[in-house]
Amino acid sequence: MSGPRIVAATPAAVAEAARALRAGDLVAFPTETVYGLGADADDPRAVARIFAAKRRPADHPVIVHLAEPEDVGAWAREVPPGAAALARAFWPGPLTLILPRAAHVSDAVTGGQDAVGLRVPSHPVARALLRAFAALGGRGVAAPSANRFGHVSPTTARHVADDLGDAVGTILDGGPCDVGIESTIVAFTAALPTLLRPGGVALRDIARVLGGEPSGRDVRAPRAPGSLASHYAPRTPALLVAPGVLGAEVLQLAERDERVAVLARTVAQPAAFDGAWHAAPRAPEAYARDLYAALRALDAADADAILIEDVPDDPAWLAVRDRLARATHGVDDDRD
Ligand code: TXA
Ligand code: MG
């Protein structure tokens, strides 16, 4: 086996990656949020290969990445004023808009829905790739996060290689992602804009531009599940623990010979604990940037459980709380 090719994102490598995309190959590339697994969005067979590589169900829609905000007109048949305002405010950047699809957009991209997800990323390597791709006649690059279905998103080229191995031809290495969690997704498919996923653009900033909060699904505080057994194998079960009891809980479990790994934020490692302990940054942006690498590292510690110190119940932590809820609930309906 040759193994995946991780290449530094030099101009020559980016140009070659753009040609590979136009030829129907898969290319993993960095964005400011997480790494994406890209395919020519106009080539349904190439898009189908994304699903095979990720082992993801084929009816899940993928986001189309565009070089320029103006390109939205090639993919959406309608851009409501609120969507246009958000695009002006946050593109290029970590925002995805779900808009009524143009006639040519394939079911492979939309999962058969009448709407398409669009994003103009700000990462310089992503932009260079998208521009080189456009110069070759390409219109957009379909890309979900470049992880195995059900796993946390990758924030380094190494994470992509660890997850996808030979299933991806080229991985462009642009260093660790700056935002670290996925884009904020706002849908304009109903009468009112809807928040589908909190993410890299804060909800308060979305609300400021829209003149009010989008309606949204309930992304409230995750609750710690009662039993470790409710989680699915093989990944280490993870649960949230209040800061006030984390230290005691860790020592108690260690005494019972349970191997635990810990993602702490404010709590200091007890002297008597010698397992895997990750001290996460205190501020929400830095915490988000660090989160997926931390979860991967703790998962590799081969513990019986990962204990995660709960984070503040505050709007600034909304996107992080959403990701922690997924990591701890074993939610399997949105592990794209
Ligand atoms: O930050 C991001 O958004 C990253 C980078 C690579 O751009 N991408 C990403 O893609 O997170 P993915 O596929 O892992 O998650 C995208 C989510 C999925 O839950 C998918 O169902 C939803 O967006 N989505 C995409 N297109 C959609 C559509 N047309 N309608 C509704 N939901 C859509
Ligand atoms: Mg994903």
In short:
The chain has 336 residues and is of the alpha/beta class. The protein is 32% helix and 18% strand.
The largest beta-sheet arranges its strands as: 1-8-2-3-7-4-6-5-9-10-11
Specify the CATH class of the largest domain: Alpha Beta
Helicity range of the residues? 25-40%
Round the mean pLDDT to the nearest integer and report it.
91
Number of structurally distinct domains: 2
Q: Tell me the distance between the termini.
A: 27 Å
CATH architectural name of the largest domain: Alpha-Beta Complex
- Evaluate the radius of gyration: 20 Å
* Order of helical and strand elements: EHEEHEHEHEHEHEEEHEEHEEHEH
Ligands, deduplicated? threonylcarbamoyladenylate, magnesium ion
What's the name of the CATH homologous superfamily of the largest domain? DHBP synthase
Low-confidence stretches: 219-234
Q: The CATH topology of the largest domain is what?
A: DHBP synthase
The portion of residues forming beta strands comes to 15-25%
Number of strands: 15
**Major β-sheet, in short?**
11 strands, mixed
Shape: globular
- Structural class based on helices, strands and sheet pairing: alpha/beta
